[in-house]
Amino acid sequence: MKKKTVKTKSLFTEKFFAEIKESLVAERDRLTKELTKFTKKTRTPGDFEANFPEYGDKEDENANEVAEYTANKPLEEVLEGMLSDVTKALQRLEKGTYGICKYCDRPMDEKRLRARPTSGACVACKKTLTDEV
Question: Do 19 and 76 have their domain in common?
């Protein structure tokens, strides 16, 4: 016989959710704007590719192109990761699972969510996962 999993209901107010959603949407827009400064979108949603600059054909120009691309690629990956976290948090809001730890299924502390609105794990579970206990 299968065990039925019961999801915990959130204890947060609609006002809290509205504030968090507003914050997450603003962050999504900021990250997207930042990414479009030096990348182009790919066919995969939420995926960007750093532009390879074209300065010319001289050796020093080629070196500058490679240096700029090399500097932008890690930044692209970090910003994409942040954008992915924001998107997942917005999806949890839509599903009604925002603020519930994805590991222990308990409500997360409001202070944690205000400090890190993209969090999907409570402090105790996160510490356990990162061996900080």
Answer: yes
